Sequence to fold (392 residues):
Amino acid sequence: MKVELALPPSKRDLRLDLFRGLANWTMFLGHVSSSVLAWLSFRNYGFSDGADLFVFISGYTSALVFGRRMIEGGFILGTTRLLRRVWQIYAAHVLLFVFYLSAVHFLSNSVNAPHFIDRFNVAPLLNAPVETITQGLLLRYKPLNLDVLPLYVVLMGSFPPVLWLMLRHRNWVILGSILLYFSARQFGWNLSSYPSGVWYFNPFAWQLLFVLGAWLALGGANTLRFLVRSRIVLVFALTYLLFATVMTLAGQIPELQQLFPRVLFEAFNPNDKTNLAPYRFLHLATLIILGARFIPIDAPRLQATLWKPVVKCGQQSLEVFSVGIYLSFIGYFVLETTSNGIVVQLLIGAAGISVMTAVAYYRSWSKRIEKLAHDAIPVSLLPKTLRHPPVN
Fold:
């Protein structure tokens, strides 16, 4: 089977690591929910934000890594490696889930601030603890800001047959993904949440970003190369990004609302994040096109020292993301119970990003040590379960 992957086996696209690291940083800043730090995130300057970028890049890298496994070892080997990654993501979610709930409950009681319980959707745990934990393990109950990893688990868990088909008929798969997206929006398809409602990130809609990333990685990027080179597309992309920025800012600044007819403003505000509004998808697509046009894969500036911490956070994305979500609550708690001044907010943001970066460097060092130790032992002496190195 001949498949045209976006990258040769020995090549790593640092752009993916860079932007996934930026997505992790900005999601942390946005989740702290302070007036200053939120303005340092993507969400106030366009229709899409760090979550969109995270899901798209996850689909792209998953297709590259596990597509090679499936091509070289067949469907069964590729699926087992992919499902092992699903288990890692699920285990990270469960660990974050437990620590997050414990922190919210303990800290709210320690300062007698019961409003934290309601704000972070922890009240169901107090009313029905066993049922709530069970539903949490089933991914139906999610405290505030713990929605991305369950979406990631579902997308990755359903990816083996999708990837198998994409390796053979990638255009038919992306067409099916588009049809599923519009059907979900038209007929209101979503998964139910506990104790009520639906998933904040509708997986039937958000799968489009994941599958698009996989499609581009498996050769679709060459199909759309003309969009990257087109001057007309460039002008449209820049114009649309400017429109999206002004329209999004208008939702925060009442004076800007006067620039738009009411019907136009209400078409984009509030931003439909749950069902991945088409204008949100288009916003990310224009960013991808501009990124591919102005930042080639071999751009020397990608190797600059300035970007190394961000790139490292992108390379250890799962650990950094989980730590960032936990730190976002801690940061919010500190600001609410001490001082909410601008200096304190900036210090909280800097401290959180520093911890996330330290975690990324530690995990990188730890994995490197584990690999050296593994390579130092003859393969014949290893247990059968350890004879294959883990997939990053």
Summary: The CA atoms of residues 205 and 276 lie 6 Å apart. The chain has a mean pLDDT of 91. The two ends are 25 Å apart (CA to CA). Residues 50-110 form the longest helix (61 residues).
